[in-house]
Amino acid sequence: MLIRRATDADFDAIWPIFQQIVSAGDSYAYPPDTNRTQARHLWMAVPAATYVFEQDGQILGTYYIKANQQGPGAHVCNCGYMVARAARGQGLASAMCEHSQKIALTMGFSAMQFNFVASTNQGAVRLWEKLGFATVGRLPRAFNHPVEGLVDALVMYKWLVEEYP
Question: I need a labelling partner for 26 at 20 to 30 A (CA). Which of 7, 20, 80, 153 fits?
């Protein structure tokens, strides 16, 4: 297992994972018909950094990290994680989230915030809670799930440094 910084060439392997997850419309707030060019921009250009989870030469997962806000909020980062359907349930998201917290600290971030976690994404909610994230906000009926309809979106947050300044 290797989690490493993504290169431009990695997008060929990231794209099918991105397309599979986003087209389902049940976890990310990207339009389900996001095209390859838009996806490359969203996942590779906008973030401060993008990483891949590689095993036996195959990319099975990916995450990005970026500042959640600018200026006075720039010490809080935001991350997004994607795991190929065939590789789910093997601990990849957990490993990437733990890795991203270490990377966040090296990049100078003090906290991590997930802005829009669909409440129906119970696996993610359980994992983030297990990894120390607290639900600090609930946006009623903010996520339009393709099967469940309007469901709540959660704001989840974790302070990363040992002590408050």
Answer: 7
What Cα–Cα distance (Å) separates residue 11 from each residue in 7, 17, 29, 61, 134? Answer: 7, 10, 20, 11, 32
Which residues are registered as beta bridge partners of 82? Answer: 62
Which three-class secondary structure state does DSSP give residue 36? helix
Residues 6+ apart with CB under 8 A from 103: 49, 51, 65
Give which of 106, 107, 96 is closest to 131, Cα–Cα.
96
User: Which of the four CATH numbers 3.40.630.30, 3.30.428.10, 3.40.50.720, 3.40.640.10 does domain 2-116 have?
Assistant: 3.40.630.30
- In this prediction the pTM is 0.95
* SS3 label, residue 74: coil
| In the chain, where the domains are located | 2-116
CA angle 25, 46, 165 (to 5 degrees): 105
